[in-house]
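Tutorial, part two.
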Amino acid sequence: MAYKHYHTHLTSRDPAKAVEFYQRMFGAKVLRSFVLYGGVNFWDLDIGGLRLRISGSTGAEESGGVTERLYGLHHLGLLTENLEQTVAELKSKGAEFVAGPTSSRPGIKYAFLRAPENTFIELVEMADDELGKYGISPDWTEDKV
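Running the prediction step on this input gives:
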């Protein structure tokens, strides 16, 4: 059985605010918005090729008998070519960084910023040889593809 990424779903107490955050911070594009489950708004966003779906509920809680609404996601990992420049740009937009920039080992630098619903975004800068270990081409950026 083969698998392919379809979407990552983030549930939020204020989904419209979460959508605005990802648009403002990362230039996310709204691919579509729709309504399901008797009035729950959904948004599908594209962030550098990652499909992020945001809503207030998935319907899974109700159908699965879960009595507590589940919110969130721990973090999304996004590559950047220049971590320091990216951190400065996002701070100028009001981003709150909770860790870094720092390095876990040679060739990898990272920082974490807070997103809605106490979710984090990990920004990672990798040297070309590190990218190769993850099967990512050194020419991964949009302007080089």
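The chain has two domains: 1-73, 74-136. In part three we will examine how such features are distributed along the chain.
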